[in-house]
Amino acid sequence: MPSYTLLGQSALSGVFIGALYGLLGLGLTLSWGMLRQINLAHFALVFLGAYLTYQLGAAGMDPLVTLALIAPAFFLFGAALHLLLARFKVNALNTLLVTFGFMVMLESLIQWIWSADFRRLESHYGDVKWKVGELFVPLPELLTLALACGLALAVWAALRFTDLGKAMRATAEDAPIAAAFGVNEKLLSLLLSGLCAAFAAVAGMCLALSHTLAPSQIYAWIGVVFAVVMIGGLGNPLGPLVAGVVIGVSEGLTMAVTAPVWAPLVSFSLLIAALLLRPEKF
Amino acid sequence: MRFIWRAAALAAMTALLWSAHAQQPVRIGSTLALTGPLGSAGNIQKVSIEVYLDDLNSRGGLLGRKVEWLLKDDQSRPDLARTLYEQLATVDKVDLLMGPYGTASILSAMGVAQRYGKILIHNSFGTPRLAKYDMQFSASGGAGDPENVWPNLVFDAVATAPKPPKTVAIVTTKFPSAHFIALGAREVAKKRGLTEVLFLEYEFGNRDFGAIAARVKDAKPDFVFAGALGLDGVLLLDAMKKIDYQPPMHFYTFPAPGPMLKLPEAKNALALTTFEEHPPHTGNPQATQFIQGFRERAAKASLPSTSVDLLSTIAYASWQVLEAAVSGARSLDDKALAQWLRQNQVDTVMGRLSWQGTPEGPPNFVMGKDIYKVKQLQDGKWLVVWPQEFAAPGAKLIGP
Question: Alpha-carbon distance B148 to B183, whole Å?
Fold first, then answer.
């Protein structure tokens, strides 16, 4: 029987990795659910954000401060990408193909600039951790959890309680009707696309804080983050965080009590269960 | 008189043609994983081979002809490696083939080499028993039974620690070429009377090592044997650091050397090697030249680490083997080269290699012994600590 400390630490580790899943999934779920764009380039953007954080961090900038530069730049990139997709009227399925192309191009760009070698951000955050009872809480993971919760809640509240958010939801629901009520669908879509890309920058910063980077690692996250987005419900900002934590904790506990090789099965078993039990959500 | 003139003209023409042929470069084709998951290793090997080729061509090349290396990027994909080797053999019509990086791609290239009767010298084939082709030659320096040789080497090394381990935790990726070594370690540990307190397998590409680290900490082993490749070791150490755990002794099969060097928590980590940048390995002019050349080229290529290590050395050695075979056989004929290698030994920068196989082992692999050593990360440097005769001056295994 595993000790309570082992179970607790494994569950905590699951919460932290789940928060990162949620943060990675936030931009993806919004673009998929509200803009009908399945944006695979989001994963490459996350890594580009991580590499830029690494680069600026190596130049002496605080990783959190790097967001002041990276997030606005990504916002513009996201908006530009949306303009391109809208200009050519790319449908939802084809956005998958087009953005896959962008993902490959961004991966090549990352590799061209930083090579295929592993890169690791050395920051003072990495050395800070606290002991709570018998459990250890590292600062980079705690920051990721705080940012994931903060952003998910902020987006949820904005969509629910602000006029802008209501207009976005209305546009996602029925764009022509929303437009008839004076909603500027094009502008809102640009704004939302830019925000999704900016969220990728935040996820990238968190990734750089806690992980060693390699360009090919982009693909390692796609499966589980897609599962998180689908389980969480498309367009639901809180969904990926909740689903991510559920999957992360399930994987962590699976690794704690059985063979770790079983862990990857957990996320996809949960996805299949969700698809079977709530088909109307997809 | 006319006959003499004609004969002379014919002889002159033949000499001219022969001279033109002799001036044509020897074209050698291979792929490397320059991109994709193995890209980090592939780029190190590329730099190493370029250093060797600079030197080789400055010495006149092979059989008096310059050497031209046709390198293609297999993107770490065995399927693409197969296609590219087909191209090298049929479209590019290279004189010789050299192996790619990584077991799966080498296996793909081996199939192509066999189809066209080409010799294949490779340096990173992790599962020797899968090598069935009799014209493949490993220049990795590894035995035909690494699952037996390497765990014994490692357990011999840790037995020299001030307090030899009594318990072991074995944590391994399911990636085939590391997995069977870890399974071998289980057997060896059992035979040596060590108690296995934990055995864990995880999928290759695992992202979260938090729970695995917690289980290792919970098991309180004296020694952690990690069947880890590339980044796995770094991720496991990261996760251990986060829960304030440092294993008393820890070994990683083939870690990413650069990131490991920069990781404070990797202090005293053990790994396998064939060559490190210190005496007695550096005690010959060729090693010095190799180290110097690699440092310069690696810096230009912006590699994170400019130190020579296992990956760069086995690449360099594989081309030394090719040069020795061509010079020894005085031929570029694949069968002649294979025959020469079976009957001879080659002194490489990392030691003497031979291919006198035994009927029970895979072809051209020596069973039961090899040239591998155990290195330890001490004060930010990898130092060989075992066997004693290859240890860095004054270096001893640091343990509890």
Answer: 10
d(Cα B193, Cα B355) in Å, to the nearest integer?
33
CB atoms within 10 A of CB A276: 8
Is the backbone peptide bond immediately before B359 cis, with ω within 30 degrees of 0? no
Tell me the C-alpha distance between B331 and B341, whole Å. 12
Average pLDDT in chain B: 93
Instruction: Provide the residue ranges of all domains of chain B, joining segments of one domain with +.
Output: 26-144+285-354, 146-280+373-390
CA B233, chain centre distance (Å): 18
User: Which residue from A116, A138, A251 is facing B39, i.e. has the nearest CB?
Assistant: A116
Please tell me the predicted confidence (pLDDT) of residue B359: 86
Q: Which of A136, A228, A266 to mutate to test the interface with B (most CBs of B within 10 A)?
A: A136
B26-144+285-354 has which fold? Rossmann fold (3.40.50)
Q: What tokens appear for B171 in the block?
A: 């944590």
The single residue listed with the structure tokens 């004929």 is: B333
Are B76 and B68 a contacting pair, CB within 8 Å? no
Give CA–CA dist B54/B67, Å, rounded: 9
Give the orientation angle of helix A222-232 with respect to helix A263-277, to 10 degrees.
30
Distance CA A46, CA A44 (A): 5
Rg (CA), chain B: 23
Q: Pick from A102, A97, A47: which is nearest to A216 by CA?
A: A47
- CA torsion, ordered A22, A28, A34, A39, to nearest 10 deg: -170
| Beta pairing class for B345-348 and B250-255 | unpaired
CA B166/CA B219 separation, integer angstroms = 13
Tokens 């640091």 label which residue?
A: B398
CA distance A183 to B114: 67
3-state helix, strand, coil in chain A (%, to 5): 80, 5, 15
> Residue A252: which of B35, B211, B218 has the nearest Cβ?
B211
Contacts of B43 in chain A (CB under 8 A): 115-117
Distance CA A68, CA A74 (A): 11
Find out whether B379 and B397 touch, Cβ atoms under 8 Å: no
Domain ranges of chain A: 4-281
CATH architecture of B146-280+373-390: 3-Layer(aba) Sandwich (3.40)
Domains B26-144+285-354 and B146-280+373-390 share a fold: yes
Residues 22-41 (B) with a CB less than 8 A from some CB of A: 34-37, 39-40
- Closest-CA residue in chain A for B40? A117
| Tens of each residue's pLDDT in chain B, 400 residues | 565 666 666 565 555 555 555 579 999 999 999 988 888 899 999 999 999 999 999 999 999 999 999 999 999 999 999 999 999 999 999 999 999 999 999 999 999 999 999 999 999 999 999 999 999 999 999 999 999 999 999 999 999 999 999 999 999 999 888 999 999 999 999 999 999 999 999 988 888 899 999 999 999 999 999 999 888 899 999 999 999 999 999 999 988 877 788 888 999 999 999 999 999 999 888 899 999 999 999 999 988 789 998 999 999 999 999 999 999 999 999 999 999 999 999 999 999 999 998 888 999 999 999 999 999 999 989 999 999 999 999 999 999 9
Q: In Å, how far is B344's CA from the nearest CA of chain A?
A: 37
Class of domain A4-281: mainly alpha
Q: How close is the nearest chain A Cα to the Cα of B300, in Å?
A: 12
Query: In angstroms, rounded to a whole number, what is the distance separating the alpha carbons of residues B220 and B247?
Result: 8
B285-300 and B310-329 helices, crossing angle to 10°: 120
Write the Ramachandran bin of A135: left for phi over 0, alpha for psi from -120 to 50, otherwise beta. Answer: beta
Question: Residue A266 corresponds to which amino acid?
Answer: V
